[in-house]
């Protein structure tokens, strides 16, 4: 049984901790936020991630998973340390590495015996080389440590599925020394292992997210062209997706990509490229298309409601996508802010989150949220929204406009119920 300290009890740290414990390792997950650790030690889960609570509870009961806020003590007592702290964006688009710096300082000041330090956080190319150099600069002999870059590819809302059925596990190393332990650590993962350099692993992570974002912006641009020619975009997506060289994944057109990863990782990659004088025309275009999606959908709404001032608009879904409670860089919140700017009275409903935003009214009941609304906007594709009782919806709204901002509704069904269906790239 391998003993490991996971630093950070956020979306990645908690999921990784639970999975590594399930694989048979003994995991201590630490966080500086005492309230999070207190919650976890009381059996409560600070985030919404389907199935995570049960998996944590099971492994805690089996004695394989522990939580603590004594970071130094945990580092001292474990020879493997996995870093899963945040790397949020700075104002200029580069990555804020202050949490990484802090934990590296803590490890360096605590180290007494051999450690494998695994960076799971998404960090810009060159960061793990820099961490390696810090250890050397602090006088720590090369025999005392190995730095490993081990980026994470899970999606929120699907985190457990992704972590137990990964497409790949990527390890960037400087020597072969930690490889045997790394293989053992992820023994339960059963995925192709990719070994590369420290910076190679970092680039695989950024290139993956940049490619996914590119697919989404491509889909959104094609959907605009379909819209102009009165073509059903979903037919085009199906036609595209059946070509195995293209694939159907990440071709869903809509409000665009948000969340704590795709936007920040794209900006950070752009920043890394510019630092080395590499042009990023494609990445720039991907971000540009994404940034204009909200305006595009508001223009659609304006075709039927030219003046939004005083209108009651209900938005279903406030997180950045379904099956999560994460509001970071949510396109829905950006849309809500635009609606408020235009003078609309905004009401919201979300299955998980009660949105606390000034000038908006959050509801606990999906149908109550639409009473006397002029328009309803579907901002995330929760299954319960797609399966709504449209006759009930029609009976409650004052005007009957449904703006499908995630291309997830059947326009025909909506129209049959006497509602007006709006979308981009809809016939
Ligand atoms: N969220 C995702 O779906 C996802 C997927 C893949 C990769 N990533 C990357 O993983 C990293 C973590 O993302 P997240 O969404 O889990 O972040 P998060 O903000 O949910 O969690 C980070 C946690 O680290 C803790 N922390 C910060 N400094 C600490 C320290 N010195 N000691 C102990 N704990 C500390 C924070 O208190 C917080 O609880 C980021 O680099 C992100 O880009 C995220
Ligand atoms: O066809 C699609 C697919 C997604 N989205 C949007 O794109 C955003 C991101 O979605 P998704 O990638 O599913 O969520 P994340 O949890 O942010 O996961 C991404 O970011 C993680 C953090 O780096 C990576 O680990 C994952 O592999 C990568 O998919 C969301 O706003 C989605 O609504 C679309 O608009 N169209």
Characterise the protein shown here.
NAD(+) binds at residues 31, 36, 87, 122, 156, 264, 328. This is UDP-glucose 6-dehydrogenase. GO terms for molecular function: NAD binding; UDP-glucose 6-dehydrogenase activity. The protein has two domains: 3-196, Rossmann fold; 198-427, NAD(P)-binding Rossmann-like Domain (Rossmann fold), CATH 3.40.50. The protein is α/β, with parallel strands linked by helices and 427 residues long. It starts with a strand and ends in a 5-residue tail after the last strand. It is 41% helix and 15% strand. The chain has an eight-stranded mixed beta sheet, with helices on both faces. Uridine-5'-diphosphate-glucose (UPG) binds at residues 122, 152-156, 209, 212, 216, 250-252, 254, 256-259, 261-262, 265, 320-321, 331. Residues 7-13, 30-33, 36, 71, 84-87, 99, 102-103, 121-122, 152, 154, 156, 260-261 line the site of nicotinamide-adenine-dinucleotide.
Structure described in brief:
With 427 residues, the protein is α/β, with parallel strands linked by helices.
Structural features:
binds nicotinamide-adenine-dinucleotide; alpha/beta; 427 residues; Rossmann fold; eight-stranded mixed beta sheet; 17 helices; six-stranded parallel beta sheet; binds uridine-5'-diphosphate-glucose
Number of helices: 17
Q: List ligands, each type once.
A: nicotinamide-adenine-dinucleotide, uridine-5'-diphosphate-glucose
CATH topology group of the largest domain: Rossmann fold
Cross-sheet strand order for the largest sheet: 3-2-1-4-5-6-7-8
Architecture of the largest domain, CATH level 2? 3-Layer(aba) Sandwich
CA distance, first residue to last residue: 58 Å
Secondary structure tally: strands: 14
Uncertain stretches = none
- In the CATH scheme, the class of the largest domain would be Alpha Beta
Strand content: 5-15%
Number of structural domains: 2
